[in-house]
């Protein structure tokens, strides 16, 4: 028997999106979120064409397009001199990959997904609700519907990961992302309002892009730092001061002046290694709970969105155990390739000494089109079930 009803643990981007993807295929779901309200933390994120196509099929892309910006270019620049090294044209995203490339605040994406879930009769969001095995059993006994499958979508520090023996654990990468938003009136002139700009320096980099939905500029600085623990809202004053002196001390004066005026939030960057994806029966993980990785490819949200869309397609075609195995066989090669690409980007963005000089020389000589072609496998990806959705 194919799957008819699912329990989803976690109401972040992964959980809300998979609920919508399931509903589009006639599968109902209960979404268990332990928080009393969906107060999404964070700053900006990027939605690349591979994810935008999935969002279009679940019915939310048009709502997002009215609130996001579509950058004309992804610019790679020097954090020391501010010199533009090269750029990847993103204004051609719709023509090249048949979908847009957008940037927006994380809270906007979650709000739009939550609104769509609230309008969907087949999706039932339960706030302030835990979802242990005992909790789910109690809800079924109290008149709730027994799930045919359980999807763990509760993020990198997943509490439900323990339902799967042999699953991987989250580990601190040794790096911190300091995130902050600068208002439009305080945005320095050297930040291009039409571009995503990655400023690269020895052992550190900074990504900056405009956010239409909050009328400001999103900035994320990434470098090595001490682990503040499993928290998104820890005090960042000391770690930021250390990073400014140790990793950004040799950067351009204009950037250092900007850094001195902000009080960012520190996000410890955790990774999830290789392990079991599901229990072979009724429970599977998706999103950061399954494969959290460093943000050097800006694909965290996109992979969670792809996960949900493809898992829903498999669950609509076959029983849960078979669907889980098919999903893993289909997804694992893509995620492994992305992890390798992310590792390469990490090395390139934080290159030092002769490696940094060689990187700049190679990037300067290569044509923008050749750089964009290397992203066709990533941005041009057609998710499983896209043609049937």
From TrEMBL:
It holds the Pfam family FAD_binding_3. Keywords: FAD, Flavoprotein, Monooxygenase, Oxidoreductase. One of its GO terms (molecular function) is 3-hydroxybenzoate 6-monooxygenase activity. It comes from the Bacteria. The keyword Oxidoreductase applies. Its cofactor is FAD. Gene3D superfamilies: FAD/NAD(P)-binding domain (3.50.50.60). The keyword Hydrolase does not apply. Its EC number is 1.14.13.24. Residues 5-337 form the FAD-binding domain. This is 3-hydroxybenzoate 6-hydroxylase 1. It comes from Martelella mediterranea DSM 17316.
């Amino acid at each position: 028997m194919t799957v008819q009803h699912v329990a989803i643990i976690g109401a972040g981007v992964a959980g809300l999106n998979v609920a919508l993807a399931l509903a589009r295929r006639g599968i109902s779901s209960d979404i268990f979120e332990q928080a009393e309200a969906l107060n999404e933390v964070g700053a900006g994120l990027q939605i690349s064409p591979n994810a935008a196509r999935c969002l279009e099929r679940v019915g939310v892309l048009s709502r997002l397009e009215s609130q996001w910006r579509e950058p004309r270019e992804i610019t790679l620049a020097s954090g020391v001199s501010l010199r533009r090294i090269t750029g990847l044209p993103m204004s051609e995203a719709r023509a090249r990959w048949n979908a847009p490339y957008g940037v927006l605040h994380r809270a906007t994406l979650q709000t739009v997904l939550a609104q769509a879930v609230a309008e969907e009769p087949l999706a039932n969001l339960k706030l302030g609700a835990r979802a242990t095995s005992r909790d789910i059993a109690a809800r079924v006994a109290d008149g709730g519907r027994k799930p045919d499958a359980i999807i763990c979508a509760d993020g990198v520090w997943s509490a439900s990961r323990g339902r799967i023996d042999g699953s991987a654990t989250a580990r601190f990468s040794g790096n911190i992302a300091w995130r902050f938003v600068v208002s439009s009136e305080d945005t320095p002139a050297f930040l291009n309002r039409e571009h995503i700009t990655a400023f690269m320096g020895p052992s550190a980099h900074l990504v900056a892009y405009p956010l239409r939905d909050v009328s400001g500029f999103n900035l994320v600085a990434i470098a090595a730092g001490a682990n503040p623990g499993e928290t998104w809202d820890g005090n960042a004053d000391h770690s930021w001061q250390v990073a400014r002196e140790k990793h950004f001390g040799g950067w351009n004066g204009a950037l250092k002046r900007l850094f001195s005026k902000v009080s960012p939030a520190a996000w410890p960057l955790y990774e999830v290694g290789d392990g079991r994806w599901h229990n072979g029966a009724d429970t599977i993980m998706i999103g950061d709970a399954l494969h959290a990785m460093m943000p050097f490819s800006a694909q965290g949200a996109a992979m969670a969105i792809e996960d949900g869309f493809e898992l829903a397609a498999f669950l609509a075609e076959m029983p849960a155990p078979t669907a889980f195995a098919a999903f893993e066989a289909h997804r694992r090669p893509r995620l492994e390739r992305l992890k390798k690409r992310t590792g390469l980007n990490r090395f390139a963005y934080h290159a030092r000494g002769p490696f940094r000089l060689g990187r700049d020389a190679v990037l300067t000589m290569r044509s923008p089109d050749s750089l964009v072609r290397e992203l066709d496998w990533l941005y041009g990806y057609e998710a499983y079930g896209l043609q049937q959705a």
